[in-house]
Input
Amino acid sequence: MTSNGTMEGKVCLVTGANKGLGKEVTLALAGMGATVVMVCRDHGRGRAALEEIKATTDSESLNLLVADMLSQQDIRRMAAEFRFKYTRLDVLVNNAGTRFGNWELTPDGHESTFALNHLSSFLLTSLLLDLLKTSAPSRIITTGSSTYRRAAINFDDIMPNQQNYDEATAYDQSKLAQVLFTFELARRLQGTGVTVNCADPGAVDTDIGVAGGPAFRERWRQRTPILVTPQEGARTAIHAASAPEMATVTGAYLENMAVTEAAPQSLDEEVATRLWNLSEELTEER
Ligand SMILES: NC(=O)c1ccc[n+]([C@@H]2O[C@H](COP(=O)([O-])OP(=O)(O)OC[C@H]3O[C@@H](n4cnc5c(N)ncnc54)[C@H](OP(=O)(O)O)[C@@H]3O)[C@@H](O)[C@H]2O)c1
Output
């Protein structure tokens, strides 16, 4: 594949870039000529994916940064490494995420689902926001999930303890938190030239189907016939990251490469502000 050059000169950062949707987004952006920084938690898996994408795209502009997005210390170190190497950031794709079949705590003492699917994006975005602003027009994309539509934010149990842990409730709530964050950030960035959108990939045949507990994995297996490929699923995020017609669209929930109506609970500005304040506290980012 030779570059079509439409993203030439742009610097993009994609988290969870070694497989699934993140890998497809990386492949597409590299194929358009962008410099893509792949954030992966395992050096070997990251390097293997990078070499594969390099061979497919002929890109000489791929880089790997290693970080476990469950660790705030790791996220801070990785963001500092990025800033040391790059003076601009045109596209940030907050994609790393998964389900946790069992209750787990992060090194920071936070419940892992909420920490990975929401707090890690909040922290990384905060750490790189000034670069996104000085690089404007620039874009932030979060990988959403339609499961947010059946969720509510329960501030009394936003990071459930082991006894109260329910995998689906935790995942859906973390995905609603991500959408509330996306929309709140879009409101706060009005007029800056930085757009923020949530890209929903649909139900995609990735390794998310082997994460989570046995009941989820069985349900996912039964859905196999209706799952789309990672390539198809990634199209909406790629569109949000690169399409000229998306240059000024912000605060939108995107499905099938189009803006769709967001669920009412994701538009509640009071909840969004409370979640923002809590996220600042939990990441010590103000
Ligand atoms: N698949 C779907 O149907 C679907 C639907 C809606 C939304 N999504 C969202 O899409 C995003 C990507 O998921 P996917 O479907 O592509 O699943 P995937 O194939 O399992 O990919 C997940 C990616 O996130 C990375 N990751 C997981 N934990 C991490 C950590 N602690 N630190 C750094 N990276 C970590 C994984 O790296 P490792 O290889 O190291 O595990 C991998 O690169 C997630 O946010 C998910 O919630 C997926």
